[in-house]
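Entry:
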Amino acid sequence: MARRIFDFLSSMKLTIVCLSAALVLVFAGTLAQVNFGIHEVQARYFQSLIVWWPAGSQGLRIPVFPGGHLIGGVLLVNLIAAHLRRFRWSWSKLGIHLTHAGLIILLAGGLFTDLFSVESFMRLSPGETKNYSEDSQAMELVVVDGADKEFEQVTAIPEAQLKRGGEIASAGLPFRIVVRHFYENSRLQPLKQAGPGAVPAATQGVGAQVAVSELPRATAMNERDAPCAVIEIAPGPDAAAPDTWLVSDQLGAPQTFSRDGKTWRLAMRPARYYKPFSLTLEKFTHETYPGTQIPKNFSSSALLRDPERDVSRDVLIYMNHPLRYRGETFFQSGFEKDGTILQVVYNPSFIAPYLACVIVSAGLLFQLIYHFSGFLHRRKPLPAQ
């Protein structure tokens, strides 16, 4: 039985099936971008084990096709099994072994990058200090206990948990949060402008003066969804009725409410990734070509502080010259007004593609030299005239 499984995993038929499935997946994912956008398609088709139908349903769904992670994982296992099955050590096969090893590293590195890499952005104005970056797609609901003037207790609830709905309980909160409605993309309007028949989105805070309308998902590269949620702060024993609140990044300032003698702040914001170090923007330079608005060069001069490692030094981040520190890479991505936008990338397997290319190149070069030298030795000298 084990022999049959190994033969199946190392077979060329499995390779052909996986490659064919990958072609179909890329074709279907490309067509789906029209309705869902590149980021949603990437998550549903290429960063998943199974493609489900219907795509946007939260209820009963049917698995219809293997996702990118499943196809890539099976291809990786297939390549390793095939190499082990046909492995025979000899100098004539060294180039082939190196080439296979490089391909295995490339596939494994791509899978690890997709699973564990994190991409975010850090926006800084001159003189501003931050020790966190923000996700460009995912949001989070934060409930802040600011009773202590020197220390704030922040409870963050991911957008994915809000999307599932239902009741949310956290050890850091003395009350429960119930998600009444979640909008993946929305538009907020004052009640006076929303037209006749408009109803307030919530009973408390800004939501009592605002109407919410659901919009189709954003699909363009330069657009993003504006999610929002209507939540209920579950009533305490002394409360007469539940309070509902509208939370959205579009509201700007946090909202406040009182519970159990404390004042709490409530806000929805981009998901944050905190660092053990901080960056302070000292100067941002934006140069354009003379007589045009075409960017020529833009750079950020910042102060890097890391108390844990006793580091305090000036760094310069500009185009094609990123800052690499503690496993993260800070690229000069863009600018807004007089501030800078840094793209922050955490990729634990960033070295894998470079290593794979070196090993594959070495294997192909060795194979070429080995066979070419053998060809020269086999050549017979021409008879003398």
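The first strand starts at residue 50 and ends at 53.
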